[in-house]
Amino acid sequence: MGVKAAERQLSERIRDFFHAHLKTVAPAISPNDESNFAYLLARVEADRKGDWKKNTLRVNQMYFKILRDKLGQIPARDFCNPEMKDFIKGWLTELAEQDKSRSYIQHLLIFTRSAINEGMKRRLIHYNYAKEVRVPKRVKKVDQRFMTDEEIGALLLYFRNKGQRRDELILWILYACALRPGELFALRWNDWDTHDPGHLRIDEAFGKSGLDDPKTPRSDSYVYLPSGVQALLQEWRAWCGDSRPEAFIFPSKRDTPMRYDNYLKRVLKPAAEVVGLEGITHQMLRRSFSTMALDSGASPKDVQGQMRHTEARMSLYYGKVIPASVKQEVNKLVDQMTTKIEEQDKKDEQTGAKTGRKR
Description:
The protein has 359 residues and is mainly alpha-helical. The protein contains 13 helices and four strands. The protein has a two-stranded antiparallel ribbon with strand order 1-4. A two-stranded antiparallel sheet has the order 2-3.
């Protein structure tokens, strides 16, 4: 058989195949007891989890478990009923009354919609009533608290006077570099080049699921390390005992990354309470950097550049190039904080001297 004859025969077979198999529309899948919400949710999870990082996977699995426990046994066909809209809305309202956050409720709603969409693809459900449901307005308020420069200065001075050089350095980096706690405790010595000490590389984050990539692609970058903090880091490097490139800068006793929730509970909160600060969190330090930098006249672009936010309009700095304006603003904040600490230290010395004379 010649080439052209073979091509014609192949073409005819392809035509006959499509004519035989696609001549009529496939019948809709009949709902059955196995096609419940848990089944649809499992299809969503299987489709998406390959794109999730370890820490994201852990959090999303929590949401999926909540949805399975609440909606899992409901047959898919029941989601065709308009009453399902009221049922979902009522459940989310209950969660809001339990002081759940907007993000928590929003994630549950998003995955609920996705599972119902999966049912629509399989022609088990004709309409997604969850699209008409909104997150309740009265939800737990987002914590927007921050610390003043006096409060941060008092905490830094406390660590200094106690000889806790590691904790003073950790507080400086959390504040001046605006790091997330998981990024801080994943830092290794090879993330800081002493030949270019003004740059600190952020390429890992430590969470409850272990080491992972930073929170967003934009977070995988460099931050500016002020000269005063560089000196403290150099001192810590000489004193810490293990400055191998692959070693963690702030390791646990087992030479693993320190768990930031343990550090908050065992070190940061007790110290804060001593100086009169209640309810301190790691996020308060990051918000404090943003608030005080803007109050000091820094441009939003410079603040967002150091904080490495993901919004397109804010993500103006990429790679290792840190603009001079960012360095200037961070140095200004550090200088202000250093002045506050020195002033407070002098006041404490004067108070101590007066007390000694009275005795």
